[in-house]
Amino acid sequence: xxxxxxxxxxxxxxxxxxxxxxxxxxxxxxxxxxxxxxxxxxxxxxxxxxxxxxxxxxxxxxxxxxxxxxxxxxxxxxxxxxxxxxxxxxxxxxxxxxxxxxxxxxxxxxxxxxxxxxxxxxxxxxxxxxxxxxxxxxxxxxxxxxxxxxxxxxxxxxxxxxxxxxxxxxxxxxxxxxxxxxxxxxxxxxxxxxxxxxxxxxxxxxxxx
Length: 209
Fold this sequence. Notes:
209 residues
């Protein structure tokens, strides 16, 4: 894959007239790690100590949770973040949700989801998993939350860390290609798995990528 050039200079733009809303639109990149690592540990404790699942079962369910996250990441990125609305309100909402990231991809404080959104969503998904999977829900939720933390961390790293070797460099170039060559392909950030499954690693007629 041809090496992509992108500056790591930070850049930003004011999104809201309200200082209160503007404040909450900026998030430190370590926030997901600080918030969700203790939760992941707690879910694993519940699965092993309280639900008395075997280590092998927890490991398998944890991986299933990660895979569930990567699929959700792909679906949201492809069908929500890259939906092209026609109305003025729709275009404004699209800019706030994801358009600002493509216009200012190196804004270091707008690369992870604000807790005011991620926490309610985490509660909703845990309730959903509890209803669907019962006693094994904590193990799946741990993997799901871990997948989310990896997603936000890798996303930040692809824009602001050198990542000069191996798989990390490949992930960086894969995501930057989405930004700087073709935003209609390469929707996976933490993993390109579902891009390969659904054949969206590149445009079918683009042999250069």
